[in-house]
Structures are given as structure tokens and as C-alpha cells.
Amino acid sequence: MGGSGSGTSGGYRRLPRDIENLVAEARSRETERLNTQVSEYLAEVLSTFRGREADLTNRRLDSLAPVLGNVVEVDKVLLGGSVAKHTDVDGISDIDALVVLNRADLVGKPPAEVRAAFYTELDAKLDRSEVASVQVGKMAVTVVYRDGMEIQLLPAMQSGKRVIIGGPGGDDWMEIAPRRFQAALTDANKKLGNALVPAIKLLKSINADLPPQKQLRSYHIEAMAVDAARNYEGPLVPREILIHLCKHASARVLRPILDLTGQSRRADEYMGEAHSVQRRNAAQALAGIGRRLDAASSLDEWKAIFGQ
């Protein structure tokens, strides 16, 4: 009486080593089982995203060049778009393609004039059996198809060895390097066993359900995902990579991130300066998502996060 007894410390009796090992093995099996269940579930979620059919997309992009005069190429390596990078989720990402022109009559003209000429030619020459409308914006021209697909085209000019587009304000020309970001994303995806792109798709899906003031743009998510891949050393499973991406992005979103394409100075110009109110709102939302994902200890909790 009053003694703690053999093998005790502060009144707490330690389990025998073999029982501790059994408990650890049971926990490991449970974690492995959850990872398997979640991986299978996330694969199902990914399969429900009605990604645009690659063959149809490519056919439509290829059909645009003959319609226009003196096209150098229709570049499917996109400026922050999602077709060439395979990260499109229907209703979340737009299709953006770069149309590089080499027209003597447009040399020296301002971007607005080039864009207007590009729009006029498309609007007049496109086959209307599939096309519902052609719309012109501040930087791009959008072809709207009757089945709901939209292809956003950014007119560019060949200037020697350079490719130039209208700047964010739509008035000045700027040089771009459209293939640089695709290469960075491809390398990051390979490093993570081709599991980074699925994680991007999943985060875009979650992002689409956030209040508008907390939502991130598609290209911004992709840029932060490339950044997140640099310091990831965990398991190459969708669950762990998605959690890491959310946690990393919740801190990274507070500071501007470089736009590797050269399309703009930053990939997140729309969020303002470092630690802006919009950035803090986004950081709070991402941190909350990360905590929910990390704490989810059952398949039902994961389903709840995706609204099921």
C-alpha cells in the first residue's frame, strides 16, 4: 500500500515492451489502411472532375491556325492555363492558348489594335457549326463553343526571337517565356512521383467552394504548388501531399510569388502587397483546410471536406 509498485513511474505503469510494439503495429496498420482508403476515395473524386477531352481540345486548337493569317503557332504551352499542364478541373480553370502571329501589317501596332484585328478575323472566319460566339476582353479573345467549352486565346507577336504580348493594362507590350513554368511544374510533379498534379486538382476543387473573397486563382495555386514541392520529403501519397500543399500555401500566400512565364511581375498581382487583407483571408482559409485534412482520421471526415 502506498508504494507505486515495480515498473512504475509516478503511479503510471508502463506497458511491457511487446505490448507497446503491438500497439505501435496496430496504429501503423490503421494509418496504412486510412491512407489506402483515402487514396482510393481521392482517385474517385479526381475521376468525377469532367476534364475537357484532350482530343477535342487539341482538334479545336489546331483548327484555329488555318483560320488566321500568318500564324507562327498555336502554343498549347499555356500562360497559367491548365490544358498542357493537365491540371484543369471543369468550371475552375479556363483554357488559355497563346496564338503567336507574324503579320507585317500589325508590326508596331499597339496591343489593343492587334487584339481587335485578331478578334475581327476570328469572328468572321470561324465555322459557326460548333462556335456559339467570339468575345474580346482586355487581353484575350474567348471562343465559346455550343457544348459549353470556352477556349481563351491570347494574341502574341513574333518580334525577332522574342514573343511579346499585351501587358496587364492591355496597352504596352511585354516579353514572355511561356514554356518556363510548364517545365518547372513538370519537374516538380516528377519529383513527387506524379502525385503533385492530382493534389493541385484536389486543392482547386476545395478552393472553388470557398467564399469568393478567399478564393485563389488557378495559376496562383499552381505556382505555390511548385514552390511547395521543393521542400517536400514525405510519403508520395495524395493525402500527405495535399496536406503539405495546404500548409505550405497558407504561409506562402502571404508574400508575392514570382511569375516564371514573364506574363507579369508576379503570379499573384491580384492579391496586392505582402500581408494584404486579401492575402491574410486566403492564408486563414488555407490553414483551416490544412488543419481539417490533417485531423481527419476517418474516410467519412475526408468525404465531408469534399462535400459528400
Structure description:
This protein is α+β, with helices and mostly antiparallel strands. It folds into two domains: 147 residues, Poly(a)-polymerase, middle domain, CATH 1.10.1410; 123 residues, Beta Polymerase, domain 2 (2-Layer Sandwich), CATH 3.30.460.90. It has nine helices and nine strands. Strands 3, 4, 5, 6, 7, 8 and 9 form a seven-stranded mixed sheet that branches. Strands 1-2 form a two-stranded antiparallel sheet. The longest helix is centred in the first third of the chain and has 32 residues.
Break the fold down into its secondary structure elements and pairings.
Elements: E1 8-9, E2 12-13, H1 17-48, H2 54-64, E3 71-75, E4 95-101, H3 111-125, E5 131-136, E6 141-145, E7 150-159, E8 162-166, E9 173-175, H4 179-191, H5 196-208, H6 218-229, H7 238-252, H8 277-295, H9 299-305
Parallel strand pairs: 4-7
Antiparallel strand pairs: 1-2, 3-4, 5-6, 6-7, 7-8, 8-9
Biggest sheet descriptor = 7 strands, mixed
Order of helices and strands: EEHHEEHEEEEEHHHHHH
Give the DSSP E fraction (strand runs of 2 or more residues).
5-15%
Number of helices: 9
Count of the separate structural domains: 2
Give me the count of strands: 9
